[in-house]
Amino acid sequence: MAAVIRPARLISQTAHLLPGQLHVTELFFEVPKNYSRPELGTLKLFGRSVRRHERPIVPMSRPEQEAASKSPYLVYLEGGPGFGNREPQDSPLTRPMLSRGYQLLFLDYRGTGLSTPINTETIVAQGDPQEQANYLKLFRADNIVRDCEAVRLCLTAGLPEENKPWSLFGQSFGGFVSLTYLSKYPKGLREVFMTGGLAPINSTAEEVYRATYKKVIERNEAYYRKFPEDVNNVYTLVEYIENHEGGGPQLPGGGVLTVGRLLSVGLSFGAHGGLDTVHALILRLTADLDQFGVFTRGSLAAIEGHIPFDTNPIYAILHESIYCYKKGVASNWAAYRVGKELPPFPWLWKDSTANSSLSSSSNSPPTSLVVTKFDGPPCFSGEMVYPLHFQSYPELRPMEQAAHILAKCNDWDELYDEEQLSRNEVPVYAASFIDDMYVDIELARMTAGMVKGCKVFETNMMYHNAVRAHTDEVISQLFKMRDDTID
After folding, report:
1. Phi-psi category of residue 452: left, alpha or beta, with phi > 0 → left and psi -120 to 50 → alpha
2. Rounded CA separation 400/234 (Å)
3. Where do the H-state alpha helices sit in 156-204?
4. What's the CA gap between 334 and 105, in Å, rounded?
5. How far apart (Å, rounded) are the C-alpha atoms in residues 256 and 394?
6. What CATH number does the domain located at 9-198+416-483 have?
7. Cβ-based neighbour number of residue 112 at 10 Å
8. Taking a C-beta distance cutoff of 8 angstroms, is the pair 381, 266 a contact?
9. Any residues with CB less than 8 A from the CB of 388 and at least 6 apart, and which?
10. Contact by Cβ (8 Å): 309, 316
11. Alpha carbon distance 79, 177 (integer Å)
12. Got the DSSP string for 268-296?
């Protein structure tokens, strides 16, 4: 049984008009830090509500103005975990959804954006590593959903009863959050749209990574087919970094460019244009070595900002915990453990053994260059977080011990209620991508079959970020499922 939630306290709201007939209200709310122990203090949440700024030829009457301001809400749930929302005018959903009669709410998850963001200072201030870990455990989807429900109760208090439930649009991790919402507070929901977000609701992190590594290897093969010159280029970069004093070139922000950090840029392979993005980075670094014998500051800055763990640390520190769906399940650095067993990823040995707690005397790491340990080009990783990231990102270093505690943690609250999902009455419309590198299609199909009333549009013509790359087509398909009948 989900806990009863009280309305969030609205602290402030400021309205603005933006170009393109957008009426935006900036909102700050106050919610409990820990819903089970509200006496422990509060967090601030930030969001922006967006509706059309109507300027009809004939001025609207007061009742018409009030009706326009009380349009039903659609809440956008961002991917991640660990990212705040972009400006409303930059979101691909804003205008399509406004044209369909919604007003939108872009709510930054707790710990992200302007919602009491997580950073080194806030984590260190919590105390020792165990206290830091206890604090970070409060930033998962279960509490994100409680925040959303508290905000819903606040914002819809004056609306007609039929307008109090709101709609969700969950992209990627936002779909995971949507499934938790459906599990805990379905009465607050009118409908749910999701793209690339059918979470593996009863699969462990290890099971997830055994599936997604297969797609990562396929995307590496596609990369080297498209850019065969990068076989030698990546070899050259890896060898240069391995032979560099200090473990690798120093990055402008204080981190280190290790082999593992370089090959982690394969995270982009799962998005439209991702192969080209990675090639541009490899080409730039290779050109530096060819012309100057070193990496230039501009190139190092480009590689440094490619995976934003320094500015969005939740993405690293809580990533595997999204697969810890119930008590008794621990991640225990699943991506590292699974990847280390796979022949295309010998570099995981070399970069990971700096942490003795993950080394084993019975599994000695290779001592020579990683490029000699696999009969093929160096393989980039995907959406995987490794212990090495907590050594090469300066913002993550102070959180390293807390990260190890969280990796071993197995007393997580349940994220999903399978029984509730099996009797779900909220319409669910999902776009699912057969070649998704981040959300395995077979696990997604299993989840879709467990959610009563879930309609799914599947395609092998789009990737995970299709809602941004092919906005009109994706939204059109979602609304066809909503508006068209099968029988």
Report:
1. beta
2. 29
3. 173-184
4. 35
5. 9
6. 3.40.50.1820
7. 25
8. yes
9. 258, 260, 261, 348, 351, 352, 354
10. yes
11. 9
12. GGGSTTHHHHHHHHHHHHHHHHHHHSS--
pTM above 0.90, yes or no: yes
Dig out the tokens for 70 from the structure: 């009380």
Q: Give residue 67's identity as a one-letter amino acid code.
A: A
Q: Kindly tell me the burial class for residue 345, based on how many C-beta atoms sit within 10 Å of its own C-beta (0-12, 13-18, 19 or more).
A: buried
Amino acid at 249: P
* CA Rg value for the chain: 23
Long-range contacts of 24-32 (CB under 8 A, 24+ apart): 24/48, 24/49, 24/50, 24/88, 25/49, 25/50, 28/114, 29/150, 29/151, 29/154, 31/110, 31/146, 31/147, 31/150, 31/151
In the chain, where are the structural domains located?
A: 9-198+416-483, 205-408
Question: Per the structure block, which two tokens stand in for 180?
Answer: 């938790």
Q: List the one residue out of 37, 103, 36 whose CA is nearest residue 68.
A: 103
- What pLDDT was estimated at residue 252? 96
Catalytic residue numbers? 172, 436, 464
Q: What is the 3-state secondary structure (H, E, C) of 64-118?
A: HHHHHHCCCEEEEECCCCCCCCCCHHHCCCHHHHHCCCCEEEEECCCCCCCCCCC
The phi-psi region of residue 270 (left if phi > 0; otherwise alpha if psi is between -120 and 50; otherwise beta) is alpha
pLDDT confidence of residue 366: 39
d(CA 44, CA 29): 6
Q: Which amino acid is at 9?
A: R
Q: How many CB atoms lie within 10 A of CB 404?
A: 19
Q: Which two tokens stand for residue 143?
A: 């509490």
Q: What is the mean pLDDT of each run of 10 residues along the chain (487 residues)?
A: 87 88 94 95 97 66 60 94 93 94 96 96 96 98 98 92 94 98 97 98 97 98 98 95 92 94 97 98 98 97 95 96 97 97 89 44 41 72 96 95 97 97 98 98 98 97 97 96 83
Q: How far apart are CA 253 and CA 256, in angstroms?
A: 9
- Other CB atoms within a 10 A radius of the CB of residue 340 amount to 18
Distances (CA, A) of 162 to 71, 190, 356: 11, 9, 58
Q: Can you give the pLDDT at residue 357? A: 43
- The pair of structure tokens assigned to 63 is 């009742």
The structure tokens listed for 148 are 């959303």
